[in-house]
Amino acid sequence: MSEIQMELEVIEQMAGRHRMAAEDLEEALTSVPTSVDGGVASDVIASIVAKLAPRADDLATASRVAGAVLDEIVADTRRTDESAAEAFRSALDTMGDE
Q1: For residue 31, what are the domain limits?
Q2: Are the beta carbons of 45 and 38 closer than 8 angstroms?
Q3: pTM: predicted TM-score of the whole model, two decimal places
């Protein structure tokens, strides 16, 4: 069993930061120039932009997926906690009936 422990609220905050990062990247990608006026460096700058944009899109996708995974971890943990709590409540009710 893992020794990692983290409050669910912290995980929710991390998920939110991943979603915000994805949104910020996606928004930034909408303003990537289609042409560059960089003088003699125009071709080099255009090449850099052409290589960066798809990778930034991949990063946005990865960040969005990471946020979704963290959200699912929180939801699953809460379902598990509630299930365990219900089992204990049921056991207590049964013991109280005896």
Answers
A1: 10-97
A2: yes
A3: 0.73
